[in-house]
Amino acid sequence: MVANTVSRRGAFGLGAGLAAASGARAADPKRIIGVIEEDPPFMNLAISSGISSSVASAPVYSALTRMDAKGDITGDLAERWDISPDGKTYTFHLREGVTWHDGRPFTSADAQFSLGELNSKLNPYRGALKSIDSIDAPDPRTVVLKLKNPQASLMVSLGNFCGAILPKHLWEGTDPARNPHNKNPIGTGPFKFVSFSPGDRITYAKNENYFIPGKPAFDELIFRIIPDPAARMAAFTRGEIDMVYSSALPATEIPRVRRMRGVDLRFSAVQASSYQAYINIRNAPFDDVRVRRALFHAIDRKFVRDSVFPGLAQEMVGPVPPNSPLYNRALTDYALDPARANALLDEAGKPRGAGGVRFDLRYLFGAADLSARKIGEVMAQNLAAVGIRVVLTPLDRGTLIQRAYVAREFDMVITSFALGPDPDVGVERFYNSNNIFPVQAVNCSPYVNPEVDRLFDEQRVQTDPARRKAIYDRIQEIVWRDVPTFPFCCYSLPGAVRTSFATGVFDTVDAPSREDFAFAAPAGR
Amino acid sequence: MLKLLLRRLAMSLPLVFAVVTLTFFLVRLAPGDPAAILAGEAPSPEFLAEIRAEYGLDQPQWRQFLAYLTKAATGDFGTSIYLGRPVFSVIWERFPATVVLTIASMVLASILGTALGVLAARHAGNRLDTVISAGSLLGYSIPGFWIGQLLVILFAVELDWLPASGMTTARVTYTGFAHVLDVGRHLILPAVTLAIFLLTMIARFTRTAMIEALNQDFILVATAKGVSPRRLLWHHAFRNAVVTTVTVIGLEFGAVLSGTVVVEIVFGWPGLGRVFYDAINRRDFPLLTGAFIFSSVVVIAANTVSDLVCAALDPRIRR
Question: Which residues are the signal sequence here (chain A) (predicted)?
Fold first, then answer.
């Protein structure tokens, strides 16, 4: 009897425990947990391109079109579109029945307003929209873009960097920098913004009315905010986080992540990035192209690729990444040849002085950027051999922007840049002289070549791909001859995802896109 | 006691003013433009100018300072440039996490540090004392971020006993007591990391104060009167030594608070320490100045409390 009571109690206890455990699981929504490096200042893709802003906004917004994992343009808010034979009129036919997260209907007026008033005026990549002459909304389901001239890269820009569609009813007549919806975004994307707990997490809930039926597969999306790379990777290793997109995954951790069980590395098929330094061509002696070319002959870029990015980086010859259809394969690389470098430096009138040193090179980089530091260390050794003393200058972000981009107190400053998907978006910004401003990620060398400017304008209006490629080939030849920048290597860094938890597409571009969030699904589906 | 409190309060006012003035100008001495950091890659010049005008960054510094003082006097400490929200609401929402972390580590450090200090004093000169003293010296010298990372690798990644970062589990939403337990689990590693420095300080000072107290004449008298060793240690010696311990805790409160900067980064703890770190990196002048003022007030308050506690414990201080 006693035994019976005990066993019943035991059974009850166990049963209750199981019920509690399984009950908790069943009641818990299907969550996918990602990570970002810092609190996003804005959640608005139309005015800020900072990585944390881009990532935090990506699940919320849609655009007229989007780029899929293969790099093809497909419909997003637009169901289909027609391009006139002269390439100057784009007519987008919008989906029926799309609503904003606040329940109001989405119409062509929203697209007209977002492209015309926000993206064309404030988007950091607004240059890619400058061929647009007028945007009309003849009826609620149709948007017509009239261009001043044909633009080959327009669809890529609209689908990626410059095309986020925001609700007109919440933005019209407001100051975009102060609009409260910068922190509380309302979009038409797969997830609705729920809350932002600074320093901790951003929470999103599934958009039940998302226009792609059955998507997204997760009920909730959470971005944890973990600035320290070691803490981020510890949390990922423990399974506290399901996905880390490429810029949050330190390159130095990739070999370890590759060995982790149940984790997949995902490489983008369409994006390419480069570790690239601006050379300050207004400063002597770097105003002399022979000195710049000497750097190319002296620095062992293969060693940089193999030691800093083992197995991840490709060589980069010229300003356009090799995976681009517009890449000029005829360019020849500067051979590693210290003797040639020495000869060029002598020829440029830079003889060795005391201790064999010709001059100093101030190399500026972000103090937290371990790859840039390693590149600098390799470079310092290589250049010491030809009499150039590299002054490694790690700086915090604020000081780096001030010294390098505002005050231009540098000889070389290095960062990683996204170069795609189209060079009009990712590459032209570094070499077109209409893009010289005291800010980062523009033409900061600053390089002025009227012929290059003219060729960029010429290619933009080409509707014949072969003709456009020919002009781009010429641009690459000239830039590679003048070398105002120093591309160390080109790479496609992977994002990591826990396959035991989620399957789907990640990292179609550098940061997660709508594609990732809309089509990610719990494992086993 | 009231007089002591009023005197301390009167002394803190000029101190706070000095902190406001110093931090206002010091943080602006560092190179870097908050507008450029806020605007991200390749911002339009108009957008940059708009941000600068909005936060008064286009004005001369003395004018910015006067405007700041005028507003601060009414309790308005400005708006964070990067986050675009009132400085005090940012600080206020992150402060509780830091309070939880700081108090947990101070309680841990006080109890363990005192116990180790008393133990070392009681066994002064023998092996146990050497071990405790050497351990304290080691704990005092090891940088917090390093210890923190080792603890994460061992207890979170390798042994899988405790979470690696954050204050709550993201996977599941807990409520009620389960939520408290969840925070507790997340608190263990950061609190231990933060406690180590203070713990070793307390142990060292308590040991010295206890040895000094144990050598006093009244201990000899008490021993002669046949007081038990335990009562002698805790009732007679410790009550005299505890003033030193409380003073150390009060004095080191500022060090513990600044230690949260590193610990909160290593453990992804969403507190005020990370607000400091981020504000420095982003040149978020209003937030940085506000956070400095706020934490100096907190440190001044903690020192005042420690003085009052000492006065309560030791009548000689009250005079």
Answer: none
